[in-house]
Each structure stands twice: as C-alpha cells, then as structure tokens.
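pasting for the record
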Amino acid sequence: MIQDMKKLTFLVTNKEYDKFIADIRDLGVIHVEELQQGATSDELQAGLDLAERYKNALKALDFAAESYESSTTYTPLPADASKGIALVDTVERLLAEENSVKHSIDATDEAIAQLEPFGEFSWDTVRQLEATGYKPYFYAVNNKMYKAEWGEKYYATPVSEFNKKTYFVAFSNEDSEPEITAERLFLPDDSLSVYQEKRKTLGEQLASIHEQLLQVNTVDRASIEAGKVANENDIQLSKVHLSNENIADGAVKLMIGWTLKENADRVVDYLEKEHIFYELENPAFDDNVPIKIKNDKFSTLFEPILRMYSLPNYHDIDPLPFFAPFFMLFFGLCMGDMGYGLLILAVSIAIIFTKPDFASYGKLGALLGGMTCICGFITGTFFGIDLATVDWEWIKPIQPYFINDSMKDSFFGYSPMMVISVIIGLIQVLLGMTLAGCKAVKNYGFIYGVGKFSWVVALLSATILFGFPLFGVEWSQPVQYVLYALIALSAFGIFFLNNPNAYKKDSALGKALGVGSNLGAGLWATYGMSTGLLGDLLSYIRLFALGLTGGVLGSVFNSLAMDMSPDIPVVHELVMLIILLFGHGINFGLCMISSFVHPMRLTFVEYFKNADFEGNGKEYQPFVVKQ
C-alpha cells in the first residue's frame, strides 16, 4: 500500500537556517526535495569521490577475507569514524603495492619459464666466450624439426626437451646469425637461480601485503564502516544545502519537504514551537511525490522484484499485493518439478537459519520452492520422473488426480495444463484491468473508471456465458438473459463513457462531438482489445511450455543415465550418478533462469500494461543521521 504523504513548504531566514537543518535532521521524518536539480558543489563531489573509495576499500577487504588465510589472531578495535580516511589510504597503498608486486611476479615467472629449459648457467662465462669470437644463439624448435647438421655447422648443442620442443644453443664466429630455421629466444640477463630467489622474495612480499590486509579487515573494519556512514551523512547534508532557493535578495531560503501523514503532527509541533513559517498541504496532482510502500510480510518479500522494474508513483495503485501470489504461482509452474522444488526449499531454509542478513531472500526462496513442490505434485513430476506412469503401488491411489497428458484427456486437442495456463492468464489480465479502473476512480472520480470496469464486466460475462458451457456447465434462460444484459450495459460504458472529458462542453455541438469522440475511441479500443488480449493470453502458454520442457529434459537425462551405464557392479551406479548429477544440474540451472525471467516478463509486460501501471516513483528518503 502506498502511504499518504503531506507536502511542507518552509521559509527560513539565514539566521535560523543552520539550526533548522540540524533540527529536521534530528526529527528524521522529512524528505527534502531538490529544488536545484543537478546542482553540485566541491563539497558534494568530494564526498561522492570518497564514498567510491570507501566502497572499493571494503570490497578489497572482503576479497582478502575470502581468499587469504592468516596464522595470527587479531583483536578488533572499537569503531572510530575519524580514522576512516587514513585507513582507506592504507588499504589503497597496500592494493597499489600488491598490484606492483604481482606485475613483478608475472615478469619474474616469465623469465624463469624462459630460462628453465636451459638450466643454470653463468652469463659471465657466456660473455667470456663471446670475447673469443663465438657468439651464442638460443633456439627452440619442434622435436621432429631439429637437424643434426646444425651441430656440425654451428656447433648446435641440444640442452633439453620440453613440451615436444627441443631447446638448444648454437654458436657463430661470424657477424651474421646462423641460418637455422627455428624460433630464436632472447633470454633474460640474469641466471635462473637469481630469478628463482627473486621470485621467492616477491612471494614473501605478497604474503606480507595479504597479511596486512587481513589485519586491517579484522582490527579496523568497524572504523572504516563508521567512516563510510559518516561520509554518507555528509553527502546527504551537502545535498540538502543544495535543495533550497534564495528569495528576498538572499535573506530567506525556500525549502520543500515531504513527510508521512502519520508524522505530520510531530513536524507541525516542532515548526510551531520554533516559529518557522510553513505551509502544510496535500500533494497536488502534478507534484513528484516520494513513495513509501507498506505491505504485509508476504507481499514485502517480493519487493526486490518490483524494484527491478520501478517503484509505483504516487498516483498508481501498489501492485505488490496483487502480483506477488501470481509470481509465486508462475515460478512454480515454470519449474514444474517436485524434486527441484524440494531442493530450492531446502537451500532456502538453510539460508534463513545460517545467513540472517539474507533471511528475507531465504523466505522468498522457501515460498517459491514450496509452490514448485505443489505444482510438481499436481503435474506428477519428480526429478523428471512422470509419476503418472510409474508402477509403484504406494502412488497408484493418487495417479488419477495428476493433471498431465498421461492421465487427462486433451481439451479440444490441447493439453489440460495449457488450458489452465491461459485461464490463469485471463484471471490476471482481468485483475489488471480492474486495478486500472480503480486507479482512474482514485485519481479522477468514479465516472472515469466506468469505461475500464465495463471491459472487465463484458469479458467476464462473455467468459461465463460462452466459456463455461465448454466445460459442461449449462445456464438457465434467465441467467443467460442477465449475462446478455450485462454485456449490453458494458458496451454502453465501453463506447460512450471511455473519455468523460469529451462531454465537458457547454454547447450541444460540443456534446455531440463528445459522443462521436467516445464512440470512435470505443471502436478503436475494441480493435485493440480483440488483437491485444489474444496476444496477452497466448503469452501465458509459456507457463505450460517451460514446465513441460523442464520435465522432458529431466526425463531424457534419466534415460541417458539408465542406458549409458555399463553393466558392471559399482561402475554402473557411479556412471549413473555422474550423468544424473550433471544432467539435472544443467536442467535445474536452465529452469531457474527461465522461472525467474518469464514470470517477470508476464508481470512487467502483460500485467502492468493492463493495470495501467506507470511506475517511475522516487523513494521516500527522510533526512536523518545514519547510524
């Protein structure tokens, strides 16, 4: 539910300004509107740059904690925000040193790799040989390409063989290079032992840097996080300082804020006490009102999914309570396997109890896993096994109740689950249209929702009148007359009340034109509905198709595991286990992706379109000191 807001306009003198800002910050319930959009300052930019440095420093420390181990036990120090910047500087210095050492290690490893095929030798000896007129040349060539004649002509001497290559050295007492068709190597200037010792030293330096990062993470992390929070408060204050307009030659500052209706009395009491000039009013229709949504515990779990699209604006109807049950059902139908549902459920429960910071995601996963178990049970699928076809005595009593092609006859040539998917889609689309009508009533008045409600009544009446008989339901004559009457009444709303503004003309001609305008718009809407509604409903077939695909793939991997396992004790079971783990792992991953993507697509496109959901709401963020 979108909570009611109150708009506050303040006029504050320069003398009162600093105390006023501090006071409303202490109140912590006023969202300050930016009157200077895009405005910035050196102070704000410095704060934003520092925030990025804090973020990168903490990310580096997280990586160090996950990747490296320490043999020393450190004692954490109490948080001290004043040390934050100095600690960030320390982390950045260590990261720079780490980067430099890693580059040196890479260069040293490359030098060692070049020298290893030739082993340990002294460059002083090589230079003495050069002084006698014999210059050495180092080569590598494929083993089969090495020619013995090079030894006779250029004193070529094989040193080693490595990775199917022969490494050798040749000599020439002439100014020109030997005519040898091989890759010439240019070796580093020091011996192998020198580079190996250097590599050891660099490794010790890198380990020391990692130890220092781990020490900072354990001892001073609380201070870095406190400094980060203090900087965020400074950024917020800088933005507030840019969120006013100077009037009366700069003597007075104009500010606009928003507060929840439930907090308005607290704010007014403070303003009256401090004698601050203010105006408290309801939001105007064209105001960009900040949004705070508050729902029950169930719907709130799906809020991250809504935020992936957008928060509702102040004139929308909060879609969360209405799409949350459908999203859960869609996920279950797309996964469609009871075994996969149990896996999701088990992992989610483990997250709830072992990762308190992610408990809300664990609860969401538990709901989705539970619904997958239910849908998998209804369709009779367990890790790709069609339970409707197995010859297990304990499951035979419930096999007739499974809804799949093995147990249920097709419906006019279509799979029962396909028909059910379309019916579910129709229910959600009609719910969306109903919410669109409620939105129009909320924002403009009842008459503006009649046209939208008329479509719902017409489609629902037509479905009952013509659809139910396909399932064997026979309506009495009076019921049919009532349904026809509802359709006719709805047609009046569709063709003559879809745009009430068109009738706001004083002249008879204007009202006649209003009738024509509504009639034309109604015809156009009818054309759009007849084509668009069909496309929307067909989109819901993906719920059936994805569930079927996952089940078929699971069944294929089960068959492969049975058919490709050799008839050798132990080996048979081992090969079968490998194929099952690999195959179902791939299938589970694909099903997880599709079970998130496609329900979101149905929600964000078909449902939000029919519900007239606009979104683009900005979140209510009260000006308050973060702790």
